[in-house]
Amino acid sequence: MELLFLGTGTSDGIPVIGCDCISCSSKDVRDRRTRSSVYIRENNIEILIDASTDLRYQFLREGINNIDFILFTHHHADHIYGLDDIRPINQKWKKKICCYGNNKTCNDIRKKFPYFFSCDQLGGGVPQINLHEIEGPFTVEKENKKVSIIPIDVYHGKIRINGFRINNMAYITDASSIPESSYDLLKDLDVLVINALKYKSHNTHFSVEEALMQAERIAAKKTYLTHMCHSIKHRKLENSLKNRSIYPAYDGLNIIC
Known about the structure:
20% helix; alpha/beta; 7 helices; globular; 7-stranded mixed beta sheet; Metallo-beta-lactamase, Chain A
């Protein structure tokens, strides 16, 4: 399975507008982080997790011109507002794209993008999606090939959101806690992707220290940190993690799981 990090930053992106901190002014391309999202290819099925605000740029940068399914972790702007940019894919491949999220996420998409679901106006491009509410494992299928997906309940502050497990890879972002009932779904992973917002504690996201504690408990063969803000300099964090199987991800990082 191919896992491509499209974006590894927070809702502000890095560099942050008007900021000249060491990360925002860095010449290391790994410190330039667009909003968090990943692209997965398995069994010739192309899956996007979250349609970030930077989706158009990310697809152009990586040469992506097709996706088959979109999984949404939650409904916040930096994870869904790129959804309008799937129109060229609808048009090129003449297909609707099936999208999956929990009840709150699906309801929010309906509220924020009402024109997706109405016929009030003709002309112009309207994204073509089929929206599916999920509770528990499900399967996506294309040309008789299937991929099984397991949603994982995590909490973003007080909001229940979804991580996702596909084969032996799990993707978790924007989490601040993981309920005990979810740890069984995170056993025997080859790859864990988990958010690490900043070094300081935060009410709605894991800090770097908390993410490392989760990584130690889950004990995947390799762990990649994502959704990092501009207080984190890539090289400094990378150097601090030497001799461990934990790595800061960066935009454009492509791994095989």
